[in-house]
Amino acid sequence: MLLPVDFQKDRLLFLDFSATNPELSTLALTDTASFTDYVFSKLKAAQAVVGVGGYNEHRVIYRRSPHFQQEPAEPREIHLGIDLWIEAGTPVFAPLDGVVHSFQDNTGFGDYGPTIILEHEVDGRPLYSLYGHLTRQSLNGLYEGRSVRTGEKIAEVGPYPENGDWPPHLHFQLMTDMLGRKGDFPGVCSVADRERFLAICPNPNVLLSIPGLP
Questions:
Q1: Residue pLDDT, tens place only, 66-76
Q2: Which domain holds residue 180?
Q3: Which has the closest alpha carbon to 158: 85, 103, 86, 88?
């Protein structure tokens, strides 16, 4: 269990943040309050517990922040994790046994904000899981190497602006290689880098088993 949500039984809403969603062209994405109202009004209208989606989605919402426009060749617009849009303060639980690999407050408009990365062992190989857009309090008392058990509360979903200035949600991502990084890892890549990053960022739905997601 990653969130206090039953992905098999609770009502979910799939949110599209690609160019195929015409509503985004009229939305003030740089206004986080307006963006938040949009997301949670959609959830309320659908009577959904959580909004889901995003893995390998070619998104337009990253144009709201210079953080994703710093590549010399092209901007980063391919999402490498699954987003779970849910109220701030919602607890986050470890889906697997592991240890704290690293953590960091990735400040800046559009960044992860408070971030935790866990390290697991699956079939004798390392697997890393990243939790972005948390509360700052989630980082209190952490240290690298701290043991974490399946189902243990590890964090809470953060409010804006401390969560990187996003509508409240959890960015959940898996990596098979940290590429030497700590406390941070790209959650979005360019189209040119898509194949390279997807090869080391497997679909998180292999753990979540959300019906309807690829």
A1: 544 555 566 76
A2: 12-208
A3: 88
Mean pLDDT score, 111-116: 96
25 is a domain residue:
yes
- The residue assigned the tokens 């991502």 is 173
As a three-state string, the secondary structure of the chain is CCCCCCCCCCCEEECCCECCCHHHHHCCCCCHHHHHHHHHHHHHHHCCCEEEECCCCEECHHHHCHHHCCCCCCCCCEECCEEEECCCCCEEECCCCEEEEEEEEECCCCCCEEEEEEEEEECCEEEEEEEECECHHHHCCCCCCCEECCCCEEEEECCCCCCCCCCCEEEEEEECCCCCCCCCCCCEECCCCHHHHHHHCCCCHHHHCCCCCC
Q: DSSP secondary structure string, 38-50?
A: HHHHHHHHHT-SE
**Nearest Cα residue to 39 out of 170, 155, 132:** 170
Total domains, the chain: 1
Are 59 and 166 in contact by the 8 Å Cβ rule? The answer is no
Which tokens sit at 42? 């959609």
Q: Phi and psi of 138, rounded to 5°?
A: -65, -20
Q: Which residue reads 């243990």 in tokens?
A: 152
CATH code of the domain covering residue 58: 2.70.70.10
pTM of the predicted structure, to 2 decimals: 0.92
In a domain, 18, yes or no: yes
What percent of the chain has pLDDT above 70?
93
